Amino acid sequence: KNEHETSWFVIEYDFNRKRKSLTYWKGAKTVGRDQGRMAACKNGSLQSPIDLSSHRVKLIPHLGNLKTSYKPDNATLKNRGHDISIQWESNAGSIEINGTEYFLKQCHWHSPSEHSINNRSYDMELHMIHISPDLNVTNKIAVIAVLYKIGRANSLLSTLTRHVKSMIDENHEISIGMTDPRKIRIGGKNYYRYMGSLTVPPCTEGVIWTITKKIRTVSRDQVKLFREAVHDYAEVNARPVQPLNLREIHVYDHSSRSTNKS
């Protein structure tokens, strides 16, 4: 395996290996009681998620619109025992951040949201996990997060409903054929950016987080379906917000950039 494949294998391994040993997925306020690989969860200073507070953000006009280049690719829908995920098989495209290309590997959903905005949490949160194969890049993981509130049914989730309903147990996988990440409709003209961590053990730090400011909608039935489908008997699968410490939260606002040019 090359480093690209190995790093992704390690992330997938940790997503699944640690979940049963923790009370984290049942909404615990702390995580990381195990030692060694779990140390960052308890002692890390760059942990995620965080509250995106308006009085803590710094407007950075030069960040620019998100540079995404996604395309359809064969995908598998997986019940990982704590969430439902889509995993793309080869090349579903990428996002460019600071001159580095990060390739989309999978997406999954949390409910309620993990990040909050001005102490307000939302009904669901989507994470798009990207990995950089560049050996010279220190921060190899980039995550795009999309927040959802109860409203009109989400079109992507609607296309997955019959598959999710058929997932009878943990580790169930279903091939769902060509799946277009662009159907997620992340937007990209307004977003938050900060340095954080994975929100599941081992809580690896150095993750580049991008949270889009556009709040999408999801139906109450869809939230219920995706939460109950994993059969973990937990009411939530979201980690509580973590201390910001001395981190900066950057924000890009397309309208402010236009104003600055005038």
Helix and strand string, N-terminal first?
A: HHEEEEEEEEEEEHEEEEHEH
Can you tell me the CATH superfamily?
Answer: Alpha carbonic anhydrase
Instruction: Return the CATH class.
Output: Alpha Beta
- Per DSSP, the total helix count is 5
Structural domains: how many: 1
In terms of per-residue confidence, which ranges show pLDDT below 50 for 5 or more consecutive residues? 1-34
Helix content: 10-25%
Rg: 18 Å
By DSSP, the count of extended strands is 16
The end-to-end span amounts to 51 Å
Mean residue pLDDT: 86
Structural class: alpha+beta
Shape: globular
Q: State which percent range the strand residues make up.
A: 25-35%
CATH architecture: Roll
CATH topology grouping: Carbonic Anhydrase II
Largest sheet: 13 strands, mixed
Function: Reversible hydration of carbon dioxide.
Keywords: Lyase, Metal-binding, Zinc
Protein name: Carbonic anhydrase
Domain Alpha-carbonic anhydrase: 11-253
What does this structure look like?
There is one protein chain. This protein has a single domain, classed as Carbonic Anhydrase II. Helix content is 18%, strand content 34%. The protein is built from five helices and 16 strands. Strands 2, 3, 4, 5, 6, 7, 10, 11, 12, 13, 14, 15 and 16 form a 13-stranded mixed beta sheet that branches. Strands 1-8-9 form a three-stranded mixed beta sheet, with no helix packed on it. The termini are far apart. Reversible hydration of carbon dioxide. InterPro entries: Alpha_CA_prokaryot-like, CA_dom, CA_dom_sf, Carbonic_anhydrase_a-class, Carbonic_anhydrase_a-class_CS. Belongs to the alpha-carbonic anhydrase family. One of its GO terms (biological process) is one-carbon metabolic process.
